[in-house]
Amino acid sequence: MDALASLAQGFAVAMTPTNLLFVFIGVTLGQLIGALPGIGPSAGMALLLPVTFGLDPVTALVMLSGIMYGGMYGGTLTSVLVNVPGEAASVMTAVDGNQLARQGRAGQALAAAAIGSFLAGIGAVTALVFLTPALSAFALGFSAPEYFLLALLGITATASLGTGSAVKAMIGATLGLMIALVGTDPIQGTSRLTFGSLELLEGVDFLPVAIGVFGIAEILVSMEQTQASAAVRTRLRDMWLTRKDWVECRMAMLRGGVIGFVIGLMPGAGPTVAALLAYVVEKKASPHPEKFGHGALDGVAAAESANNSAAHGAMVPMLALGIPGSASTAVLLAALVLLGIRPGPMLLTEQADLVWGLIASMFIGNVILLIMNLPLAPLFASVLRIPYSYLVPGILVVSLVGAYAISLSLFNVGLTLFFGMVGYLMIRADIPRAPLVLAVVLAPLMESSLRQSLMLSEGSPAIFVQRPLSAVLALLVIGSLVLPLFGFFLARRAARRAGVAEALSHSSD
Amino acid sequence: MKAVNVITALTLLALSALVLLGTWELPYWAEFAPGSAFAAFWVAVVGIVLAIALLVTTAMDHGGEPHSFPDRRGLVRVAALAAGLWVMVLVIPLIGFVPAAIAFSLFLLLGIERRPLVPSLFTTAVITGLVYGVFIAWLGIALPTGPFGI
């Protein structure tokens, strides 16, 4: 009941005209950013974070989170109409959504995605209402060893739950930790890895890293080829589901929503993994798996429900523990810090209006997005006709002005460009960038809590397994490191068996 | 992909060595608590272990999956954009932020993208208006100005 009373208070905060306006601006920008191929919600949030400097913290956060979940809706449009995912989490939507568009059923695909995203989003925010206070109260008992292990788990889980190579994901995280080491040691105050540079004494700001690694790097990749993809020419009518479509999709939406929320709670997994998993599960559960890949409406509904639900689910550890579970929530956490708010379990009690206002704004934002994606979908589809090359200079100039605005220093602008080049090289080397950004955000908490723990134990690492909770967390960290190793050896064994089978089949020829 | 992985591993080894050498003079352990070099030492160790792991897994991988690089034209476009961005940052102290942004936008649209003149000028005007309206007028950020006073 306390949660419901707090939520009612949150609605009072979110319903003020200014906050309503910025929820609308946030979700509209998110919808547009999601629809534009080449720039994802986390990049969009990082680019637009400096714009929020003059705003009240609640207003700034409702706008930024609106970009985050609005991007999940917007990505569908490009996936269905152009067969290019607007952002990574819509990759599975492109598989069946575009096939449906080619069959003249673009309206149904977009409607299934919008309704699925809406229902899963509302379900996930409802779960968030009850889960966040409970987790936050539980986390009040955490001390330095638990915080160190939790932050470490946030990083190692990225490696084991990601979709690519675990070693490369860990390399991304290590690069992030190296960046975070630069500056003044937070405990002893000595300068570290500054190589005599006065500008580096205060360390590397998060924003130049995020804007460079996400925003500028993605633009550089998009420049490798001229953007010539054309949208499927279709009339966006019948933007609703028939009774038959609804029966086909409703369980997919439910399954996708639940899978998405659970995956969203886990550090490091995020909406892309959620959409992939929901699609695979749906293919197994579907009465017509043969349709998958050729235009399955329930495949679209499952993937879209999952990615939106995961985006909301990732807010739980961020709000309750101060540990971001995804790149987007890492940007949101950085925004909190920049706005002078200390994240962690006390956030819910110290900044109740902010947290509950933010949660209430998500209910409102999802309703606005449903309207935008059903009757107004053709309007947003028309944005796809603007050649991407006209948007690139605007994105880059706003990125660099934003980087300058952080500390009014041209050094930060240069740093942003440097990290843009680093991000580009990471994409080319197939190194995921989210672990780097997560590590930059989590490193200060990780280092200070590690050193505090060892100070308390006089150097004994046993402190990390002495309390039951820290022992469980330590086991999870070890598990997250062993899981990819296990997967690697299983894959090698399977490859060896396949090789033997192939050799046998060749010998029988 | 093998060459890319080997270059990645060697870069990580070099960066780990840089972290170790850069914090060599700092204390690893100060009387009762870990010192400034403590975290740096362990991050460098993890970096070295991961670099070796990448080298080993690359050597064990006999698949030989080819790496997809952009073609020559794509590389030229990326290099031109990167050069344009660095030149823009370098000329900001000389001509001001807004004129540098205008010059960069026109270079990108007319020089790299080969877009028609009128839409390019219109786009540049919209970008300038956006930067002025949001950052200068609304947020009150004093962007560096040049001889033109803007």
UniProtKB/TrEMBL annotation, chain A:
Q: Name one Pfam family in it.
A: TctA
Where are its TM segments located?
20-39, 109-131, 137-159, 258-281, 318-341, 353-374, 394-427, 470-491
Domain of life according to the entry: Bacteria
Domain DUF112 stretches: 20-438
Assigned keywords, A-Z:
Membrane, Transmembrane, Transmembrane helix
- Presence of the UniProt keyword Transmembrane in the record: yes
In its UniProt entry, what is this protein called?
A: Tripartite tricarboxylate transporter permease
| Source organism of the structure | Ancylobacter oerskovii
UniProtKB/TrEMBL annotation, chain B:
Residue span(s) of domain DUF1468:
7-144
* Name of the protein described by the UniProt record: Tripartite tricarboxylate transporter TctB family protein
Key words, A-Z: Membrane, Transmembrane, Transmembrane helix
* Pfam families xrefs: TctB
Is Cytoplasm a UniProt keyword of this protein? no
Stored InterPro entries = DUF1468
Q: Which organism is it from?
A: Ancylobacter oerskovii
Q: Where are the transmembrane segments?
A: 37-57, 78-109, 121-143
